[in-house]
Amino acid sequence: MSQWNDREPIFLQIRQRLIAMILSGEAQEDAALPSVRQIATDLAVNPLTVTRAYQSLTDLGVVESRRGLGMFVSPGARERLLVHEREKFLSEEWPRLSARIEALGLDIQDLLARKPS
């Protein structure tokens, strides 16, 4: 069973896992993705939760439903996700990180010296 972050809806956490699969290359373009039922069973969640995660990725144009076959990674999905995730990071996460870095008096050399491997 999976550990869930109580601060974020489960469908968004599933969505992020699917995004990570696409960005890492684990799920290639035109490749079939796990079925809604398979993910729901593996993660012990309601199939509607998984459907909602897939729908949000369909809305982004990175996943497509093929009638009778299932869900597939759309052509160009990785590039679209890179653009989307970079913009999301810069607009949502970076302002908080930047403010924290400034509040701590850190500079670029401090950050690069502690770069995780």
List keywords for this structure.
mainly alpha; two-stranded antiparallel sheet; WH-like_DNA-bd_sf; DNA binding; 5 helices; 117 residues; transcription regulation; 60% helix; Arc Repressor Mutant, subunit A; elongated; DNA-binding; Tscrpt_reg_HTH_GntR
Spatial order of strands in the largest sheet:
1-2
Number of strands: 2
Report, as a whole number of angstroms, the end-to-end distance: 29 Å
Q: CATH homologous superfamily - what is it?
A: Winged helix-like DNA-binding domain superfamily/Winged helix DNA-binding domain
CATH hierarchy, class: Mainly Alpha
Q: What is the fold-level CATH name, i.e. the topology?
A: Arc Repressor Mutant, subunit A
Q: Please compute the radius of gyration using only Cα atoms.
A: 17 Å
Arithmetic mean pLDDT: 93
For the record, the CATH architecture stands as Orthogonal Bundle
Which regions are unreliable across 5 or more consecutive residues at pLDDT < 50?
none
Keywords: DNA-binding, Transcription, Transcription regulation
Protein name: GntR family transcriptional regulator
Pfam families: GntR
GO molecular function, one term: DNA binding
